[in-house]
Amino acid sequence: MYLIAPSILSANFTKLGEEITNVIDSGADWIHFDVMDNHYVPNLTIGPMICEAIRPLTQAPIDVHLMVKPVDRIIPDFAKAGANIITFHPEASEHVDRSLSLIRESGCQAGLVFNPATPLEYMDYVMDRLDVVLLMSVNPGFGGQKFIPSTLAKLRAAKAKIDAYEQESGRRIRLEIDGGVKVDNIAEIARAGADAFVAGSAVYGAGKDSDPHRYDSVIAALRAELAKV
Ligand code: DX5
Ligand code: ZN
Fold this sequence. Notes:
With 229 residues, the chain is α/β, with parallel strands linked by helices. It has a single domain, classed as Aldolase class I (TIM Barrel, Alpha-Beta Barrel), CATH 3.20.20.70. Helices cover 32% and strands 17% of the residues. The protein is built from 8 helices and 8 strands. An 8-stranded parallel sheet has the order 1-8-7-6-5-4-3-2. The structure holds D-xylitol-5-phosphate (DX5) and zinc ion. D-xylitol-5-phosphate binds next to strand 2, strand 8 and helix 7.
């Protein structure tokens, strides 16, 4: 039920292929793929070419987190590049409903991302178009930041909305958390309602660079914490 999604933002890009293979072999569930445009967020990362290049390496879902504005132009490119899940920030789209539809029409699962100050109301009229709700527990743009504690209350509120929707529709929406997730706070975050956990620096910062099994123990530790919930 709980999914671990290491963010490749913190991987060693000189050997990205190995980094992805190793993290999946160590038990990760999703590959979290952070796309930044130096416009919506003050950083610049990777695009559809890299998504396409890593696609053959794994069966694991590629979870594309768009931190770009505008969003619609790039959605079909990521779908063609093999993305499975595409999420975007509502502030970055002029037409949230249309962008969500475009993602589904492209054959991917769709989600909205909420910055720390973004109200959850953005989801209210589009629940049927959502497969994932992603709450940012840091301001987007960089890995290695500290988890913002008020996100726990926001997670509980998001979970209540998702539970109410499941009651009436029978359909479950995933509740993903992104930013500052570590072994020492993942259980508390799960108790607040998250069921998918992005972890960048916590996973890719672990172990010695030369050891292909260096992610085994951190992923096992994250799962052990989740087993206590
Ligand atoms: C931040 C990104 C995150 C980031 C998380 O804008 O969306 O996915 O990589 O990194 P950590 O886990 O180090 O906070
Ligand atoms: Zn992310």
